[in-house]
Specification:
- The chain is an alpha/beta fold.
- Helices cover 51% and strands 12% of the residues.
- It has 13 helices and 8 strands.
- Strands 1-2-3-4-5-6-7-8 form an 8-stranded parallel β-barrel, surrounded by 9 helices.
- Helix 5 links the parallel strand 3 (74-77) and strand 4 (102-106).
- Helix 2 packs across helix 4 (56-69), helix 4 (56-69) runs parallel beside helix 5 and helix 5 packs across helix 6 (125-138).
């Protein structure tokens, strides 16, 4: 499914959706693929920082909720795979079963950090290749394995590319080049390997917020916006809560709210309501 979306849109814009309703909003906006961020699960589902505090079950619960409501291909953040090769294989199988179309796994140590924070540590090339091989062996043809490298900060661009080449040899379908800092780095990366490159344009991070045209020119095939909407929603909620507390009313916030009509349209509310009415009508007929 992801591969078809990549053929339909070049480069593919993939947005983060932290829950089922935001996935529906993304679909209605015209996006062809969606993403579940590990930070999104930690921050918004559990109220925790993104510091390896979530479990596979936590992420799969959100995958199930999103994939039940939205049929777009969903890529999930698998962090470091939550354990050894057997656990990496289980991660892939469970995510596929939950409804994901693919996942990405990274080369940080198990006690991982946000990719745009200092202090990241990465595992050896051999250890990462073992993770990738386990993931590839566990997947089926419809499941995409994206491999993220955080090596730029620790080892530089050339060694990051060397790592990417070995990851491709181990079976990576797509390379997620994390925290690159300029277009030349992306261009060098995409020119140096033979699989698609994903760029993570997360706000307030190390990577400038490039346009689609700039990313296309650098050869990037997938542009990820992992938490853009989530940050906007959180900021809007914070301002609304503060206004209600300070002003004693929500009247001045109404213009910033989604209307009931828009909500119902997104959810196809009237379709469900019509089904309920039919059921009740039939029941009344039987009870006569």
């Amino acid at each position: 499914m992801l591969q078809q979306a990549m053929r339909d849109e070049q480069p593919l814009q993939m947005v983060g959706t932290i829950n089922a309703y935001s996935a529906l909003l993304a679909k209605n906006a015209g996006f062809k693929a969606i993403y579940l961020s590990g930070a999104g699960v930690a921050n918004h589902s559990l109220g925790l920082p993104d510091l390896a505090m979530t479990t596979l079950n936590d992420v799969c619960e959100d995958i199930r909720r999103i994939s039940y409501s939205c049929d777009l291909p969903l890529i999930a953040d698998a962090d470091t795979g939550w354990g050894n090769a057997f656990m990496v294989a289980r991660t892939v199988k469970e995510m596929k079963k939950a409804g994901a179309s693919g996942c990405h796994i990274e080369d940080q140590i198990a006690s991982k950090r946000c990719g745009h924070r200092p202090g990241k540590e990465i595992v050896s090339v051999n250890e990462m290749n073992d993770r990738i091989k386990a993931a590839v062996d566990a997947r089926d043809d419809d499941f995409t394995i994206i491999v993220r490298t955080d090596a730029l900060a620790a080892e530089g661009l050339e060694k990051s590319i060397d790592r990417a080449r070995t990851y491709i040899n181990s079976g990576a379908d797509i390379i997620f080049a994390e925290a690159l800092t300029d277009l030349d780095q992306y261009k060098t990366f995409t020119d140096s390997i033979n699989v698609p490159v994903l760029a993570n344009l997360t706000e307030f991070g190390m990577t400038p917020l490039y346009s689609v045209e700039e990313m296309r020119g650098a050869g990037v095939k997938i542009i990820l916006y992992p938490l853009s909407a989530a940050r906007s929603m959180a900021n809007a909620a914070m301002k609304t809560y503060e206004a209600i507390k300070q002003e004693g009313t929500q009247k001045n916030q109404i213009e910033n709210m989604q209307t009931r009509t828009a909500l119902y349209k997104t959810l196809n509310y009237e379709v469900y309501e019509e089904k309920v009415d039919k059921i009740l009508s039939k029941k009344k007929q039987r009870d006569k």
